[in-house]
Design brief:
It is a single chain. The chain is of the alpha/beta class. The chain has 2 domains: 159 residues, NAD(P)-binding Rossmann-like Domain (Rossmann fold, 3-Layer(aba) Sandwich); 196 residues, Dihydrodipicolinate Reductase, domain 2 (2-Layer Sandwich), CATH 3.30.360. The protein is 36% helix and 20% strand. The strands form 2 sheets. Strands 14-13-12-11-7-10-9-8-15 form a 9-stranded mixed sheet. It is globular and about 55 Å long. The N terminus is likely disordered. The structure holds NADPH dihydro-nicotinamide-adenine-dinucleotide phosphate. The site of NADPH dihydro-nicotinamide-adenine-dinucleotide phosphate has 22 residues, from helix 3. Keywords: Oxidoreductase. Pfam families: GFO_IDH_MocA (PF01408), GFO_IDH_MocA_C3 (PF22725). GO terms for molecular function: nucleotide binding; oxidoreductase activity. Belongs to the Gfo/Idh/MocA family.
Length: 367
């Protein structure tokens, strides 16, 4: 499909509906870009899948072309809303057939956590690129299987780390890498929200693989790594549970954890399902500091340093993420902060260590 037709379709116009001069003006403004589009099927049409689909309407390089869902009524709605043809609609039992569909390049897995690994591996075996939500899997062993399966299939494995493409986050990371804060020796990450419905999958160990740490604490782990630019060598962690009925065995309500890094930097973090408005990163160095609050919500993100506010336009995170992921897959672009399977695996290794530290009460070394 030519660039011109793509733009017109995205803009919701038919060629006939446009007067020629207006169409030519649009052409001059918008049609120079490359015609390469990543054609994506979303698996799991829930709350976040819906958000991603809405954000993709404004993408330049990624397009929603298919769905994989267990709920026929949602499929009908999405077909109407996004113009998805029947031949691009699958359910969990038959989506392996996607291998015979040349119109889908990638599948974005947005299901409960425990389904990430089995579904991602099936997608890879069908020869399609995998984009998988965080946490990439339930533990590092599962994550390794996913990385190996995608490598064997020759497909990309990317993780939905939308903050890695967010402009203010990238500017703070740029300043840190440029040494503008001096030696960064302390990071604080506070990640939490107050969870509602006790029957939801996030509080079901079989589907979630844990509690707040898997869902929201992972942002502080991941943030510590990209803000400090190092990988931790040890963790310590402590769990607090005020409601053992709601937060059953192995479903953590609140965990405080600490990480130590090769440079001598330390991170002190909180992951919780019991507090709202807890979304803050603080980075302190020998020459300056950066603070972000909110730091990982849907935005706008607010960031400032010892020199003043960090200014950047707010763009819907998932729109930028999907365009950048298209560039990674189609052009081989290297993102400023990685989003590949190895990156997802690093967070899972740390999560494993944190849970072990909670259970044993001991400092856990990470090799
Ligand atoms: P939801 O419960 O809203 O949606 C999950 C969807 O998965 C369901 O609607 C359903 O879609 C499908 N599904 C398949 N099997 C099951 C099952 N056994 N039980 C429940 N649902 C099932 O969850 P979210 O959309 O909030 O979260 C999905 C994933 O996205 C999680 O891994 C979460 O961590 C991640 N996430 C990431 C965010 C980010 O900012 N990066 C933000 C929020 C979530 P269908 O009916 O179509 O089959």
């Amino acid at each position: 499909m030519g660039t011109r037709r793509i733009f017109l379709k995205r803009a919701g116009f038919s060629t006939l509906a446009l007067s020629l001069p207006f169409a030519e003006t649009l052409s001059a403004m918008n049609f120079e870009r490359d015609d390469k589009i990543l054609r994506v099927a979303i698996m799991g049409l829930g709350s976040y899948g819906t958000r991603v689909a809405e954000a993709m309407v404004n993408c330049q390089r990624a397009k929603l072309v298919g769905v994989i869902s267990g709920t026929p009524s949602k499929v009908e709605t999405w077909k109407q809303k996004y113009g998805i043809p029947d031949k691009n609609c699958y359910h969990y039992d038959n989506f392996d057939q996607i291998k015979d569909n040349p119109d889908i390049d990638a599948v974005y897995v947005i299901t409960p956590n425990s389904l990430h690994k089995p579904y991602s591996i099936r997608v890879a075996k069908a020869g399609k690129h995998v984009i998988c939500e965080k946490p990439m899997a339930l533990n590092a062993a599962e994550g390794q299987e996913m990385v190996a399966a995608c490598k064997a299939a020759g497909v990309h494995l990317l993780v939905g780390y939308r903050m890695h493409f967010e402009a203010k986050t990238q500017e703070v990371v740029r300043q840190q890498r440029a040494g503008e804060f001096g030696e960064t020796l302390f990071f604080q990450g506070l990640s939490g929200f107050r969870i509602g419905d006790p029957t939801q999958w996030r509080l079901n160990y079989e589907l979630a693989g844990g509690g707040s740490m898997m869902d929201i604490g992972i942002y502080s782990i991941n943030g510590a790594r990209y803000m400090l630019g190092e990988e931790p060598t040890w963790v310590t962690a402590q769990e607090v549970k005020t409601d053992p009925v709601k937060f059953k065995e192995n479903v953590d309500e609140t965990i405080t954890f600490q990480m130590g890094f090769p440079s001598g930097a330390v991170a002190s973090c909180l992951s919780t399902y019991s507090l709202n408005n807890l979304d803050k990163f603080f980075l302190n160095g020998t020459k300056g500091f950066a603070e972000m609050q909110p730091s990982t919500g849907y935005g706008p993100i607010k960031a400032w340093t010892n020199k003043g506010p960090v200014e950047a336009e707010h763009i819907t995170h998932q729109t930028t993420q999907m365009d950048e992921m298209a560039a990674i897959i189609l052009d081989g672009k290297k993102p400023m902060i990685p989003v590949d399977g190895e990156e997802g695996l690093k967070d899972l290794v740390i999560i494993d260590a944190i849970y072990k530290a909670v259970k044993t009460g001991e400092k856990v070394m990470i090799s």
